[in-house]
Amino acid sequence: MHTEGSKQTQNLYTTGKVEKGDVKTSISATGTINPVNYVDVSTNVAGKLEKVLVKENDQVTAGQVIAYIDTRQLQASADDARAALAKAELDMNRYKSLAAQDAIAQQTYDDSVTSYERAKSTYDRAAFK
Predict the structure, then answer these.
(1) How many CA atoms lie within 13 A of 97 on its CB side?
(2) Alpha helices in the chain (DSSP H)
(3) Is 114 helix (H, G, I), strand (E, B) or coil?
(4) pTM beyond cutoff 0.70
(5) What are residue 49's phi and psi, to 5 degrees?
(6) What tens digit of pLDDT does each residue of 46-102 get?
(7) Is 68 helix (H, G, I), strand (E, B) or coil?
(8) Which long-range contacts link 79-83 to residues 24+ away (Cβ below 8 Å)?
(9) How far apart are CA 94 and CA 43, in angstroms?
(10) What is the pLDDT of residue 47?
């Protein structure tokens, strides 16, 4: 029965031949890719890089040399510290002898010992070991 106010719906189908083939899916997205392992690299001394042995994103292992720093400035600092240590040692030995003869105040000798210890500490930090 068909009434005048009702509409008939008709289903439309498209048929095709079944074929074997690849289904392609692509996904487009934006964002940031973060590494699984990330390490900040820094040095204990400042200086100009002489040579870099690795490239960005190279895998490295603990203890691997990755760069060389120009050591000329570091060597100059070590040489200065060695000279200051030698002078402080000479002064300390001279004042020790004079203090033993009561030719100088004990405080002068004590100050020379302190100067020697400071110079030795500075040299130990600056020396290449």
Answers:
(1) 5
(2) 72-100, 106-126
(3) helix
(4) no
(5) -70, 130
(6) 788 899 999 988 888 888 999 998 888 888 989 999 999 999 999 999 999 999 999
(7) strand
(8) 80/126, 81/119, 81/122, 81/123, 81/125, 81/126, 81/127, 82/123, 82/127
(9) 40
(10) 82
Q: Can you state the percent helix, strand and coil of the chain, rounding each to 5?
A: 40, 5, 55
| C-alpha–C-alpha distance, residues 70 and 49, integer Å | 6
Higher pLDDT, residue 10 or 114: 114
Predicted pLDDT of residue 6: 56
- What is the pLDDT at residue 24? 83
Percent of the chain clearing pLDDT 90 (strictly above)? 43
Structure tokens that stand for 36 in this block: 């699984």
Q: Which two tokens stand for residue 19?
A: 């074929």
Sign of the dihedral defined by the CA atoms of residues 53, 58, 64, 69, in that order: positive
CA angle, 19 then 21 then 22, to 5°: 150
As given in the structure block, the two tokens for residue 68 are: 């060389």
51 φ/ψ angles, rounded to the nearest 5 degrees = -155, 135
Q: Would you call 50 helix, strand, or coil by DSSP? A: strand
- For the chain, the farthest-separated pair of C-alpha atoms sits apart, in whole angstroms, at 138
Q: For position 52, what pLDDT does the model report?
A: 92
